[in-house]
Write a structure and sequence with these properties.
Layout lengths: L5 H13 L10 H12 L15 H10 L1 H20 L3 E6 L4 E6 L1 H8 L11 H4 L3 H8 L3 E4 L11 E9 L5 E10 L7 H15 L9 E6 L11 E6 L2 E5 L1 H6 L12 H4 L5 H6 L1 E3 L5 E7 L2 H9 L14 H4 L4 H15 L4 E4 L6 H11 L7 E5 L8 H6 L17 H4 L4 E5 L9 H10 L1 E2 L8 E2 L3 E6 L3 H6 L5 H7 L2 E4 L9 H13 L3 E2 L1 H9 L5 H14 L6 E2 L6 H5 L13 H15 L4 H8 L3 H8 L2
Parallel strand pairs: 11-16, 11-17, 12-13, 13-16, 18-19
Antiparallel strand pairs: 1-2, 1-5, 3-4, 4-5, 6-7, 6-10, 7-8, 9-10, 14-15
Helix pairs in contact: 4-8, 14-15, 18-20, 21-22, 21-23, 25-26, 26-27
Length: about 625
């Protein structure tokens, strides 16, 4: 959110506090609602807040009560403090009530903040201090920015603050992380950095497992597994009893759903599927990759009797889609493999769900570097503002939130193997020149300095975008395109498959486990146009397996509703025939078939709602 000019904030304050009118649209609604709460609670805007810090002994006792929170947050605080010290700002950690446990950063600004009692041992709840990022984030239950005159009390107008709540695995508020600087300096990334640090702290709550709880670590993007970007869900007796924020957002859940939501409401397949296959299908038909961890209590008991605990299997690509290639595609893969072996990059182009990553993994598995790393990077899923650090790595203290030991970056993780840059068409324009230089020189320098590192990897890129159109519109650099597209392999949409019956049968065979598709069911599956392509079809077949008994004959009435009520003749998209236009047309048709319901259309296509909003400009 852009910072409001302080004269506009001043006008809003006069309108609200002097004339008693609501300056709707002049200040953020969360600020306005906070002002109203403060007035109703009896706070006088012209009063001088009197705040005294706790005596030393009481502060030590307060910190001891929250030792675990401090332990889990320490690495993030150290990283944020290093940056804050150089940007005239400070980072604060509070408990769930707003009592400041720790404040670190720029010594000069710590002194100025101390003049308004922004220091350890002081409670910055909204009830005590009026509108402020810490207290208002607690009341609102979400990340909040409060800048300058948006604070309730005038003396706090010297501050610009961004705070985000920290929750434990059971959804309970345990603290707040706050980034504060002078109001005269616009902190562009403060809120994003605070959120990222809070995500990492919440992720650490699960490091040692959960007692009497089975932990499911998962994401639809395998590259995020093992990072703070993965979803973590804990189940006990079929009930969701623990989760991190990422896990909740994956399923559209709120913190209040912890303890209420059931496993069956979220997933189509039993938990054992994750242990066996490294993947699960949710009720929306999405395939999620990950691993299942036994409860901490169960592991402890097993270790006590010296019974080895089986290790969770790594996430695997879709086996069905990964083993089915037409004769034409086999020829294309062979040609692309020869190009890769010659040290030249390959670009995979196709709609969402056509199996671009499956093809990339097949190229890796069939090549000379099969035993080396395969690193998949979803360029559209990396955290905005930190993409460069995630890709290229960074040295210790390179930026706020940086790990103490730095990070090698995803490009270096692919050393000696294959680097797969998925959705490269969605890479921010500002980052493209640096990637171009790395690909040209095969050498990178981590953020924050450090010795340049020589790189050795085969490069495969993929996109659902029409890169020619993106270049014409100035969204993608032509010099980068010619660096990554020495050879282009196009993956056709499923509706273009001439013999879909044979394809359905080939995909069904490894999944069926003695089940049989009736002739009518097979006809309907083959006739449908599958806007979500292979991903949607494989998800549908897996659902049929999960909902039927072994040796069953799957009748047409067992098929998903959209196969029974939506006309099944193949659709030929209108427009200019380009990949971009075909993709947009399929999205429009799905949206129309769902009566404009974006969530339903996104589920049908197997994409995120944000993708539809962005591509169709809804």
């Amino acid at each position: 959110m852009a910072q409001l000019p302080q004269h506009r904030v001043g006008n809003a304050r006069r309108s609200f506090f002097e004339r008693g009118t609501l300056p709707v649209g002049t200040v953020p609604d969360a600020i306005l609602q906070s002002w109203r709460r403060c007035q109703r609670s009896g706070l006088a805007v012209d009063a001088q807040p009197q705040l005294e810090p706790l005596p030393g002994a009481n502060l030590r006792e307060l910190r001891e009560r929250h030792e675990r929170l401090w332990h889990l947050a320490r690495a993030e605080l150290d990283g944020l403090a290093a940056h804050a010290a150089s940007t005239d700002s400070i980072v604060l950690l509070t408990d769930e009530s707003g009592w400041i446990l720790n404040a670190e950063g720029n010594a000069g600004f710590l002194d100025r903040a101390g003049r308004v009692a922004l220091m350890p041992g002081v409670c910055w709840s909204e009830a005590a201090v009026g509108t402020n990022a810490i207290g208002t984030a607690i009341v609102e239950g979400r990340a909040i920015e409060v800048r300058g005159g948006e604070h309730f009390f005038a003396p706090h107008g010297i501050l610009s603050c961004a705070a985000t709540p920290i929750h434990d695995p059971h959804g309970q508020l345990v603290g707040v992380l706050d980034f504060t600087g002078p109001a005269s300096v616009q902190q562009m990334h403060a809120l994003g950095l605070a959120r990222l640090a809070a995500n990492r702290i919440e992720h650490r709550f699960f490091e040692n497992g959960m007692d009497s709880c089975e932990l499911l670590r998962l994401h639809h993007d395998r590259a995020l597994l093992g990072t703070a970007g993965e979803g973590v869900l804990g189940f006990r007796n079929g009930r969701l009893v623990a989760a991190n924020g990422v896990g909740l957002r994956l399923f559209g859940l709120e913190r209040g759903d912890i303890g209420r939501a059931s496993y069956e409401a979220l997933f189509d397949a039993p938990l054992s599927r994750m242990r066996d296959d490294g993947m699960l299908q949710d009720r929306s038909g999405r395939i999620l990759h990950g691993q299942l961890e036994a409860s901490a209590a169960r592991v402890a008991r097993a270790q006590a009797v010296s019974v080895p605990v089986p290790q969770a299997r790594p996430a695997l690509p879709l086996p069905a889609a990964g083993t089915v290639f037409s004769a034409a595609q086999e020829q294309q893969l062979a040609r692309a493999g020869r190009v890769l072996e010659a040290g030249l990059p390959v670009l995979l182009q196709g709609e969402t769900g056509t199996g671009k990553e499956v093809a990339a993994r097949a190229l890796h598995a069939r090549g000379s570097r099969a035993g080396k790393p395969f690193v998949a990077v979803n360029c559209a899923a990396l955290p905005e503002g930190l993409i460069e650090a995630e890709l290229f790595g960074y040295e210790e203290g390179a930026f706020t939130g940086a790990r103490r030991q730095g990070s090698p970056g995803l490009l270096r993780q692919a050393q000696g193997g294959v680097l797969f840059l998925d959705e490269i068409g969605d890479m921010p324009l500002a980052l493209q020149p640096r990637l171009l230089r790395v690909l040209q020189d095969r050498e990178l320098s981590p953020l924050g300095g450090g010795k340049p590192v020589k790189l050795d990897f085969m490069l495969v890129c993929a996109t659902h975008c029409d890169l020619q159109q993106a270049m014409d519109e100035g969204r993608f650099r032509s010099d980068l395109y010619y660096r990554i597209a020495d050879h282009v392999m196009r993956l056709p949409a499923l509706r273009e498959e001439a013999d879909r019956t044979a394809l359905v049968q080939a995909l069904w065979a490894p999944l069926a486990q003695q089940r049989t598709l009736s002739d009518q069911a097979l006809q309907k599956l083959a006739a449908y146009h599958w806007p979500g392509n292979l991903r949607q079809l494989v998800a549908c077949l897996r659902t049929l397996v999960a909902l039927s008994e072994p040796t069953a004959v799957i009748a047409a009435e067992c098929l998903p509703e959209y196969l029974l009520v939506v006309p099944t003749p193949a659709v030929v998209p209108a427009g200019d025939g380009s990949l971009q236009e075909m993709t947009l047309e399929v999205m429009r048709q799905a949206l129309a078939a769902c009566d404009g319901n974006v969530s339903q259309a996104a589920k049908r296509l197997g994409v995120n709602r944000s993708t539809l909003y962005r591509r169709l400009k809804l």
